[in-house]
What we know:
DNA polymerase, domain 1, Helicase, Ruva Protein, domain 3, CATH 2.40.50.140, alpha+beta
Amino acid sequence: MIGFLRGRLVAKHPPQLVVDVGGLGYELDAPMSTFYGLPDVGSDVMLHTHLVVREDAHVLYGFATERERRLFRELIRVSGVGPKIALALLSGITVDRFLECVEADDTDVLVRIPGVGRKTAERLLVEMRDRARVFGVARVATDGGATGPAPPEPQAEAFSALVALGYKPAEVTRMLKSVDAAVTTTEELIRQALRLAARD
């Protein structure tokens, strides 16, 4: 098992990124919560990792914090929840927000996340109720932004990332049109689009 990677960030195209570790390039999938905190390409980065072995592929997932990885590992143990849904959950809401949903038995927030139907949301709340106690409480502010006209490249990258997270193309187009036109970065476009989707 690969526990973590420390190296140079070579590429980031949400939800995928590449880290150069001693001349070996590792491809990882990561939730948007991790992408929001990534440094610029070419900078050093350290990510907690989890390897999923399938019949047709070995997929490495990367996380900015140990809490994100722990929640990911707990989520994929839930019946009917695979890595793709777990990644979408971590991209759509924070660890603390998810724990609040579990505590409040709130399915409404969870069903707004692509791939999470009512039955899956209810199963998550039931199966995660006891496991959620292992997580401490840590409130983290995630506000941020940028100004200036948005170039087409961040829009295209945000579109691809949201589709990869499970949203339908028409839905993504509508989400991105609702985002503040002053936003210029891919990460902030995705962040605001996911916030808007959670409010609908």
